[in-house]
Amino acid sequence: MTVDQLMKERQLTKTRQWEQALNLLYIDFWDYSHDALSKFDGEDIHQARVNCRKLLTLLSILDPGHALGLYPLFEKAQKRLGKVRDADVLIESFKTKCKQAKEVGDTKTAELLKAVIDHQKDKRKTYRKKLADELPKLINEDLDEKWKTFLSEQLEARVAKKDVNVVMRELEVAYEQKKKACKAIFRGHDAESEAAFDSLHQLRMAAKELRYTASAAAFALNQKFHAHEEIYKQIQDQLGLINDKRLWLETLNAIGREELDIGKKTWNTFTAQLKTEVLDALHQNDVIPITNQTK
């Protein structure tokens, strides 16, 4: 076998690896999405969203300019699935808090949380309706044809131009830059500021991108990146805990006490408790430790 033949064979092998990985994600995304539309099962929604997120991750590597027209379609599907999934997660988190309040006999807080849950369920109905209306327009025969054309006619050329290991290194650099920005804020007296929380959110998103790239592109990555999925998942989870607690508080404030018909004392007590939980989670994180700060 000549050098040219050997290089061509290697390229074909590389292309087949990408095709296999992409097609598996596409099939799972397609199946879970259609299952989700039949009964809005939480796990189906979650798996459809995860597979869509991984497809977006790989497409962003191969087609950063979105010239193929596939990325925007998956992005729209991701947005609709994400709205329902986020509502599912938020409702479950408030259900857990409601159960805890009942267990300690805190009926006033339980009533508040029940009102929040009912309010969020109404919002979820709207998100489910939009998902049911829009997802079939995205996941159809037209998408299937675009996908087949991409794999058969465009994939090989794009794979030849990309080294996902370089992409991973660029993501690592971006993560470290965001981490450095967080540390700069936390070295001052602004660790509990809006800017600090926004900076942590950006860091969490950078960790999430590294995690999903390490997972979706594992087949093409060097050995040194194989542990990245778990490493950055742990970071994402820890920063996510801060973000989740902050989201609970923001959700309550967005709804408002009057809308929920809750007494001022109950409202103030519970929102103060949530603020304390947010700050506790912030100070307990060890991704960006807070030093010389007082709560």
| Beta strand count | 0
- Helices and strands, in order, run as HHHHHHHHHH
Mind describing the biggest β-sheet? none
- Rg: 23 Å
Distance between the termini: 69 Å
- Overall outline: flat
The fraction of residues assigned to DSSP E strands is: under 5%
| Number of H- or I-type helical stretches | 10
Helix content: over 70%
Rounded mean pLDDT score: 93
Which residues form runs of ≥5 with pLDDT under 50? none
User: In terms of structural class, how would the helical and strand content be classed?
Assistant: mainly alpha
Structural account:
With 295 residues, the chain is mainly α. Helix content is 82%, strand content 0%. Helix 7 packs across helix 8. It is flat. 28% of the residues are buried.
Descriptive keywords:
mainly alpha; 0% strand; single chain; 295 residues
Please describe the topology of this protein.
Layout (H helix, E strand, L loop, with lengths): L2 H37 L2 H21 L8 H33 L3 H32 L2 H20 L3 H24 L6 H23 L11 H28 L1 H4 L3 H21 L11
Helix pairs in contact: 1-2, 1-5, 2-3, 2-7, 3-4, 6-7, 7-8, 8-10
